[in-house]
């Protein structure tokens, strides 16, 4: 293994971690602040990927495709919050899980009706199809660099929004004591609706950016929802900082399990078996990380509530 390969794979892990953060940040906002377990969050991710891929194919404008994905998914989330999620505030988590799991089934069937059951290909913008030499002898795909920068910018903006703005103060107040916040004149219902829409926008952005790197297909939201929940647990429910740190850890551990562990096993096992085991090893490494963190910090690395 060369240093160039190591650095390249670590950058890939950070990029994957940042995309997990965009999805997990929305989850931790909705669950940690609103106390609503929204399993349909992955379906919003899938919707963003499909809308962005379709708009990009028709208009050849990637920026327009991302903006269209944000607008469409936020509008869908607005209807979803008004018709269903608003009725789940204060309900037990089992009712929330059952209701939002039903949304997953409906969303998958709607996507099949609109785009068909076969995966569709989403291409990166032509201007970012090349590579940038970030170090001597290390060309790195320009599009992946854009994902890294976009993820860091969104992470910084989200941290400032939650911790250093009046809106963030109202959000934290409603999460800490909803009744007292309402007595003080805070419209907690509107604040919770805003939080849900912000989470949906983050999921749509993650889907639109991840589309060119993976197959856009039915069920892609459920596939990424599981590692996002792992990030949620490791980082601490309701903590943006915890979601960011946990997403970076999960991204790096997953990359190590997929890229480096198979290299060590190739002298010992047949190549086909090593290829089949790489995804399993990555999954086991991620869950081992979660188990190790929970053994020492049962509430996660940075729990929002002490």
Task: Explain how this protein is built.
InterPro entries: ABC_transp_permease (IPR001851), BCAA_transport_permease (IPR052157). Belongs to the binding-protein-dependent transport system permease family. LivHM subfamily. It holds the Pfam family BPD_transp_2. It is a multi-pass membrane protein. One of its GO terms (molecular function) is transmembrane transporter activity. By secondary structure, this protein is mostly helical. The protein has a single domain (3-122, 141-296), classed as ABC transporter involved in vitamin B12 uptake, BtuC (Orthogonal Bundle). Helix content is 74%, strand content 3%. The protein is built from 11 helices and 2 strands; from the N terminus they run ααααββααααααα. It has helices at 3-34, 41-59, 62-83, 93-115, 142-164, 166-176, 178-183, 188-210, 220-235, 240-265, 271-296, and strands at residues 131-135, 138-141. Strands 1-2 form a two-stranded antiparallel ribbon. A hairpin with a 2-residue loop joins strand 1 (131-135) and strand 2.
State the helicity in percent bands: over 70%
| Binned strand content | under 5%
Structural class: mainly alpha
| Domains, number | 1
State the end-to-end distance.
43 Å
CATH topology: ABC transporter involved in vitamin B12 uptake, BtuC
Biggest sheet, spatial arrangement of strands:
1-2
Helical segment tally?
11
Radius of gyration: 20 Å
Low-confidence stretches at least 5 residues in length (pLDDT < 50)? none
Output the CATH class name: Mainly Alpha
Largest sheet: 2 strands, antiparallel
Count the beta strands.
2
One letter per element, helices H and strands E, the order comes to HHHHEEHHHHHHH
**What is the global morphology?**
globular
Mean of the pLDDT scores? 82
Instruction: Assign the CATH architecture.
Output: Orthogonal Bundle
Keywords: Amino-acid transport, Cell membrane, Membrane, Transmembrane, Transmembrane helix, Transport
Family: Belongs to the binding-protein-dependent transport system permease family. LivHM subfamily.
GO molecular function, one term: transmembrane transporter activity
Pfam families: BPD_transp_2
């Amino acid at each position: 293994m060369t240093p160039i390969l190591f650095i390249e794979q670590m950058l890939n892990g950070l990029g994957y971690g940042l995309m997990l953060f965009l999805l997990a940040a929305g989850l931790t906002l909705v669950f940690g602040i609103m106390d609503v377990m929204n399993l349909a969050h992955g379906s919003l991710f899938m919707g963003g990927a499909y809308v962005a891929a379709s708009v990009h194919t028709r208009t050849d404008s990637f920026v327009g495709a991302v903006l269209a994905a944000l607008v469409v998914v936020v509008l869908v989330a607005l209807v979803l919050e008004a018709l269903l999620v608003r009725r789940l505030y204060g309900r037990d988590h089992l009712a929330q899980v059952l209701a939002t799991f039903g949304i997953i089934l409906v969303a998958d069937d709607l996507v099949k009706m609109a785009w068909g059951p076969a995966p569709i290909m989403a291409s990166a913008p032509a201007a970012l199809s090349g590579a940038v030499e970030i170090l001597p002898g290390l060309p790195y795909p320009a599009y992946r660099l854009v994902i890294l920068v976009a993820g860091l910018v969104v992470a910084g903006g989200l941290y400032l929004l939650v911790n250093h703005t009046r809106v963030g103060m109202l959000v934290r107040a409603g999460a800490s004591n909803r009744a007292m916040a309402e007595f003080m004149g805070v419209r907690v219902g509107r604040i919770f609706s805003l939080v849900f829409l912000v989470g949906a926008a983050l999921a749509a952005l993650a889907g639109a950016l991840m589309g060119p790197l993976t197959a856009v297909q039915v069920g892609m939201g459920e596939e990424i929802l599981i590692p996002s929940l792992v990030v949620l647990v490791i980082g601490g429910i309701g903590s943006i900082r915890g979601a960011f740190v946990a997403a970076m850890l999960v991204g790096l551990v997953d990359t190590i399990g997929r890229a480096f562990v198979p290299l060590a096993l190739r002298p010992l096992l047949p190549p086909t078996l090593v290829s089949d085991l790489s995804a399993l090893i990555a999954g086991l490494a991620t869950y081992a990380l979660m188990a190790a963190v929970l053994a020492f910090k049962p509430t996660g690395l940075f729990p929002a509530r002490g």
